[in-house]
UniProtKB/TrEMBL annotation:
InterPro entries (alphabetical): DNA_primase_core_N_sf, DNA_primase_Znf_CHC2, DNAG_N, DnaG_primase, TOPRIM_DnaG/twinkle, Znf_CHC2
Stated name of the protein: Zinc finger CHC2-type domain-containing protein
GO BP, sorted A to Z: DNA replication, synthesis of primer
SMART domains referenced in this protein's UniProt entry, alphabetically: ZnF_CHCC (SM00400)
Species of the source: Calorimonas adulescens
Species lineage: Bacteria, Bacillati, Bacillota, Clostridia, Thermoanaerobacterales
Origin: domain of life: Bacteria
């Protein structure tokens, strides 16, 4: 068969099965569930027992003869065997009875139930049957048209017309958005009146997640969540640490580090399965030549469904270590050794993506919760939990749509969400909490509060705990912070649209702007654009200036002169001198970074615009030095698509051959 035709078939099947699994079957599941009753299951599978009591002989364990061991409950639509302990939903009962296996086993059960219990007559009996019928239709079209263009087969569809229509429209919207993407210079130079009105839209969370999963399958053949579970179950590294924790955990060092760094006692650390990995334990690893965990504390992240460990966030304990990542997110060892340009071999790791899991959710998911605290750091969630608060952490200053889906699934949209991100000097944590609050709001959450510490006491709860060293006093501060929390309410569409049309702020920027300050930010932006042409300013100058939204119009004009061509002419002015003193670090940073940006070889201005949203200039410089243009394009693509990714995946690794005790310390060509 023609290879191009094979590619069309493969692409079409991957796409349509993705939609089948995550849209069509989910939509008809209520009909399927309603059709499943104890009476129908009894008749179909010829169960023996007492139907009037909903009790039967269990079909799952050998030698079963007790007519009351298996119970079928129509109210909950589930089953349970008192003898063998097997239990689940009615759909899972069908799945077990039909011996469906593999990652699509539950969907196979849905198809079987739809055809045999709900009378829906889908037109296919299994996913394999669906794929074969789809392939037959493509081949039939090919025999008639001889076309090798994928678009010539797009309207072949085995599902109801509504799904084809929705998918086609979705694809058209994506294409339109892609066509609208312009280089930074074009965006800056465009007339502000050409920008469309911005509307803060309400979003359908279920549909968003369904489409996200479908896209995962189209891209990779499996959802990110299922892939993470699969990787965890096959992980030799996770098996090492779950089976041999007593050999691999330096408890005394764990106690010392957690106490000094976080004021968390050893009992709490052990309760959450924390591990201090010392290089002396190297020999107990499956791969004893894996050195990347030396002198790190491992925070295990558990799956919310099963409780199994799916990965570790590994925290560097040597606070003076240079050129090493403070955190590494790891799932497993790489099986193959890598040889660097110097001919030295080393073993890399399989990264863990935290965007599908929330630390401590498994422990809280069955608890009735009124207020859920969400911290930026995992240690902060542990500290809050040890003090009696219900806390989870994404392990990063960001909430993904899947994180929000999990919060909704287990606690509902009426739960009070306390976003307790870091109150750091660069305001990254608080800015990210505003962005998270906007996203929660779009998905229907209305009780959102933004909490922050007193900066003088510390940027997060563990910093404050170390300084106070008294949990009872710390609780008083937490109560005070909560009492004075900002109850989030979005800015009006009019204000958001006005700010966007200045051309100084992107859509992402306006949804990270504190609504309490938006009038002041609008006034600043409107005054600023009077004095500059945005296309003449580099990104770092703009970023530095946007931090100064409290300046008035006269101060803006003076500062712009300081930052650009007329520094010498105005530096003797009294007012200019005052502004220089107040903003010296910003002016210096902008000038120095402008010089650095001129040296970029592989990174374009448009790419730089996106990279600076996520990374500091030092890391961007290393990306420019060490990554190919194709790798840089992939990194920028992930940022534009707001994907959860690890820049480590794109950075060449370097080895320090001069580590102590004859071992290799693995160091990277970037920080982030």
């Amino acid at each position: 068969m023609n290879s191009s035709l094979n590619n069309i078939i493969a692409k079409k099947i991957t796409h349509d099965v993705g939609i089948l699994i995550f849209q069509f079957l989910n939509d008809i599941e209520p009909i399927i569930q309603q059709s499943l009753t104890a009476a129908k299951l009894k008749d179909f599978y010829r169960l023996k027992g007492k139907y009037n009591k909903g009790r039967f002989v269990c079909p799952f364990h050998p030698g079963a003869d007790n007519p009351t061991s298996l119970s079928l409950n129509d109210n909950k639509r589930n089953f349970h065997c008192n003898a063998c302990g097997k239990s689940g939903t009615y759909l899972e009962f069908i799945m077990y009875m039909q011996n469906f296996s593999g990652r699509n086993n539950l969907n196979e059960a849905k198809i079987f139930a739809a055809n045999n219990f709900a009378g829906l007559n889908l037109g296919f009996n299994s996913i394999a049957d669906f794929e074969q019928k789809l392939k037959d239709k493509i081949l039939e079209r090919y025999r008639k048209t001889n076309s090798l263009r994928y678009t010539g087969y797009y309207n072949i569809w085995l599902l109801p017309e509504i799904y084809f229509s929705n998918t086609a429209e979705s694809d058209r919207q994506i294409q339109r958005k892609e066509k609208q993407i312009k280089p930074f210079s074009e965006v800056c130079s465009s007339n502000s009146t050409s920008k469309p009105d911005f509307i803060l839209e309400a979003l359908d969370l279920e549909k968003t997640i369904r489409h996200l999963k479908a896209q995962n399958i189209i891209d990779n053949g499996i959802t990110d969540y299922d892939k993470a579970i699969q990787d965890a179950k096959n992980s030799k590294l996770i098996n090492d640490f779950t089976q041999n924790a007593d050999k691999l955990n330096s408890v005394d060092k764990l106690s010392d580090f957690m106490s000094k760094k976080y004021n968390i006692d050893i009992d709490t650390a052990m309760k959450y399965g924390l591990i201090y990995f010392d290089k002396d334990s190297q020999r107990h690893l499956y791969y004893s030549d894996f050195f990347m965990l030396n002198n790190r504390v491992l925070f295990p992240v558990r799956d919310h469904e099963t409780g199994i460990v799916v990965g570790y966030q590994c925290r560097q304990t040597d606070l003076n270590a240079s050129k090493q990542y403070k955190y590494l997110n790891i799932t497993d060892y790489q099986d193959n050794l890598i040889t660097n340009e110097n001919g030295t071999t080393y073993r890399d790791f399989v990264p863990f993506k935290p965007g599908n899991f929330l630390f401590n959710l498994y422990e809280l998911k069955n608890k009735c919760i009124n207020t859920l605290w969400i911290t930026e750091g995992i240690a902060d969630a542990i500290k809050l939990s040890s003090m009696g608060y219900d806390a989870v952490s994404p392990g990063q200053a960001n909430l993904t749509d899947f994180h929000i889906y999990l919060i909704d699934k287990y606690f509902g949209r009426d739960v009070a969400v306390n976003l307790f991100f870091d109150n750091d000097k660069h305001k990254v944590g608080q800015s990210k909490s505003i962005a998270a609050a906007y996203r929660l709001w779009q998905f229907g959450f209305r009780n959102i509060r933004i909490i922050s510490t007193f900066k003088e006491l510390g940027k997060d709860i563990t910093d404050c705990s170390v300084k106070l060293h008294d949990d009872e006093t710390l609780k008083l501060f937490v109560s005070l912070w909560e009492k004075h929390a900002y109850s989030f309410a979005p800015a009006s569409n009019e204000d958001l649209n006005t700010l966007l049309k200045t051309g100084l702020y992107t859509e992402s920027d306006i949804l990270s702007t504190d609504p309490r300050n938006i009038k002041q930010v609008i006034s600043f932006a409107e005054a600023l654009v009077k004095y500059i042409d945005l296309k003449d300013m580099n990104y770092k100058q703009l970023a530095a200036l946007k931090k100064l939204y409290c300046l008035n119009e006269e101060e803006i004009e003076t500062l712009l002169n300081l930052c650009t061509k007329n520094f010498k002419e105005v530096q003797n002015a009294n007012k200019a001198e005052n502004i220089v003193k107040e903003n010296r670090h910003i002016i210096s940073d902008a000038g120095q970074e402008e010089k650095t940006e001129e040296k970029f070889i592989n990174i374009s201005k448009a790419q730089l615009f996106h990279l600076k949203k996520k990374f500091d200039l030092d890391l961007i410089q290393k990306i420019d030095n060490e990554c190919s243009r194709k790798q840089i394009a992939a990194i920028v693509g992930n940022i534009i698509k707001n994907k959860d990714f690890n820049v480590l995946d794109y950075m060449p690794k370097k080895i320090n051959p001069h580590s102590s005790n004859g071992t290799h310390t693995y160091k990277y060509g970037c920080t982030g």
